[in-house]
């Protein structure tokens, strides 16, 4: 059966697939309802409906990190689909069996499972195809194949955007931004995570439902770009949300990002407060990435209090040895600390070495021009390397002040038709749909000096 099973007339199959489709946004209720449906169908011989209900439970168990339960449920669903020759369902389940394999660390097997559906010849429903790209991206990420992961997430974004599935867009765009931070594309990362935050605010009617991790990623990207004052403004905004929602659960890296930016701003008391919260939150989850992250922030605190030698020692621990699996983003942050500390100690030669080390870390991971352009086009993000002529900038500035093409033409001594020609070039250069979007992008890129 190669067609979308949503075309089936069986109401139980339709019910099971409706639960499968809601598993992303209503996870707990979908799991409870799918479990109930499984119990109803277990002895009926309706293998296809039972298979989809079981696949839904297995998928959610995989998201929860319940490895044994996920494998058992997904394998049971696979068996039911094989009984009725539902190739569509079999390929979907095969893909999701990759998730527990990543959790077990079987990285070779997980990528085989994740990529098999793309080679099957099945024509997938857009929402299922988006899911397949998502699982493949997860596996590539775990294997530190960041370019491949970005390609898969960008493909998922194209599908969701085309078919209007806005519910998943903020998280997806945020994940792309995090990957861009990993590969050192910080300007593009900042644009992506900022877009994720804006999408999230537009999606939520209640600010108590906002996913605060998106704002945390903005702080991280600004810190990597050494835009500490801007990072501090976002940190203050994040703190306001956290004070209103004291019982909200956030990952340890959110507190760590706050600790880092406040240490950079010299607000040591606040930095220590959030660093302790990050340490407490990370108990039982001391991966190499988290250990490196915490040690790097501890070095940041030592630098903020003038203990430069201690900061250097801690930062070198965070960098680790060449065979240590420490993410490049942690190595870059630690190298920055070492460089600054040596400069403050008066050893400019060693400081320059570490400044260069920071630039060299992960340089081979930078995006290809093709992939970078694909991401920019999808998100309608302007390339920061774009140069506008002085006349184009004048047109933008006047437009930002509410001037029409006729008004701008009179001001600049050119014809309105020429003004429109300038704007056609501006829109193309900034990858913008209209003048308002072009003005916003130019302002964000600090191209305009608006009065």
Give an overview of the whole structure.
The protein has 451 residues and is an all-alpha fold. Among the domains are: 1-143, Alpha Horseshoe (Serine Threonine Protein Phosphatase 5, Tetratricopeptide repeat); 281-365, Serine Threonine Protein Phosphatase 5, Tetratricopeptide repeat, CATH 1.25.40; 382-444, Orthogonal Bundle (Arc Repressor Mutant, subunit A), CATH 1.10.10.10. The chain is 72% helix and 0% strand. It has 24 helices and no strands. The chain has helices at 11-22, 27-41, 47-64, 67-83, 87-96, 98-104, 107-115, 126-142, 146-162, 169-183, 186-203, 213-224, 228-244, 252-264, 268-281, 288-304, 308-319, 328-344, 348-360, 369-379, 390-400, 405-412, 416-430, 435-444. Helix 8 runs antiparallel to helix 9. It is globular and about 75 Å long. The N and C termini lie far apart (64 Å). The mean pLDDT is 90.
Architecture blueprint of SSEs:
Elements: H1 11-22, H2 27-41, H3 47-64, H4 67-83, H5 87-96, H6 98-104, H7 107-115, H8 126-142, H9 146-162, H10 169-183, H11 186-203, H12 213-224, H13 228-244, H14 252-264, H15 268-281, H16 288-304, H17 308-319, H18 328-344, H19 348-360, H20 369-379, H21 390-400, H22 405-412, H23 416-430, H24 435-444
Helix content: over 70%
Kindly estimate the percentage of residues that lie in beta strands according to DSSP.
Answer: under 5%
Tell me what the CATH architecture of one domain is: Alpha Horseshoe
How big is the Rg? 25 Å
**CATH H-level homologous superfamily name of one domain:** Tetratricopeptide repeat domain
Distance between the termini: 64 Å
Number of helices: 24
Tell me the series of helices and strands, N- to C-terminal: HHHHHHHHHHHHHHHHHHHHHHHH
From the spread of the alpha carbons, the general shape counts as globular
Oligomeric state: single chain
Query: What's the total count of β strands?
Result: 0
Global mean pLDDT: 90
């Amino acid at each position: 059966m190669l067609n979308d099973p949503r075309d089936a007339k069986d109401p139980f199959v339709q019910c099971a697939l409706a639960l499968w489709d809601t598993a992303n946004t209503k996870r707990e209720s979908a799991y409870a309802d799918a479990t109930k449906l499984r119990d109803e169908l277990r002895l009926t011989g309706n293998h296809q409906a039972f298979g989809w209900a079981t696949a839904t439970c297995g998928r959610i168990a995989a998201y929860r990190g319940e490895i044994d339960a996920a494998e058992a449920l997904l394998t049971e669903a696979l068996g039911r689909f094989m009984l009725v020759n539902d190739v569509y369902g079999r390929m979907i389940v095969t893909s999701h069996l990759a998730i527990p394999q990543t959790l077990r660390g079987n990285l070779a097997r997980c990528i085989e499972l994740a990529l098999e559906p793309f080679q099957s010849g099945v024509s997938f429903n857009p929402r299922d195809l988006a899911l397949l790209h998502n699982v493949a991206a997860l596996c590539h990420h775990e294997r530190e194949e960041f370019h491949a992961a970005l390609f898969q997430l960008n493909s998922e974004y194209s599908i969701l955007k085309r078919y209007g599935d806005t519910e998943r867009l903020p998280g997806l765009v945020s994940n792309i931004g995090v990957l861009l931070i990993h590969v050192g594309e910080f300007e593009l990362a900042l644009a992506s995570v900022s877009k994720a935050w804006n999408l999230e605010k537009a999606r939520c009617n209640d600010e108590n439902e906002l996913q605060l991790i998106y704002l945390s990623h903005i702080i991280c990207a600004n810190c990597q770009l050494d835009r500490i004052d801007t990072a501090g403004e976002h940190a203050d905004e994040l703190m306001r949300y956290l004070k209103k929602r004291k019982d909200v659960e956030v990952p340890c890296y959110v507190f760590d990002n706050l600790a880092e930016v406040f240490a950079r701003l010299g607000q040591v008391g606040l930095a220590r407060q959030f660093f302790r919260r990050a340490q407490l939150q990370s108990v039982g989850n001391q991966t190499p990435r988290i250990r490196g992250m915490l040690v790097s922030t501890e070095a940041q605190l030592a630098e903020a209090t003038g203990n430069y030698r201690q900061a250097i020692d801690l930062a070198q621990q965070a960098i680790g040895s060449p065979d240590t699996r420490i993410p490049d983003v942690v190595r870059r942050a630690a190298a920055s600390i070492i460089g600054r500390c040596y400069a403050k100690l008066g050893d400019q030669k060693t400081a320059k070495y570490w400044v260069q080390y920071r630039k060299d870390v992960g340089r081979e991971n930078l995006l290809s021009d093709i992939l970078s352009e694909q991401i920019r086009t999808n998100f309608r993000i302007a390339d920061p390397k774009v140069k506008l002529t002085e006349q184009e900038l004048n047109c933008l500035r006047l437009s930002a002040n509410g001037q029409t093409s006729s008004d701008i033409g009179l001001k600049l001594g050119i014809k309105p038709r020429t003004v429109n020609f300038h704007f056609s070039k501006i829109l193309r250069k900034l990858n913008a749909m209209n003048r308002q979007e072009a003005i916003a992008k130019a302002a964000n890129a600090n191209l305009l000096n608006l009065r």
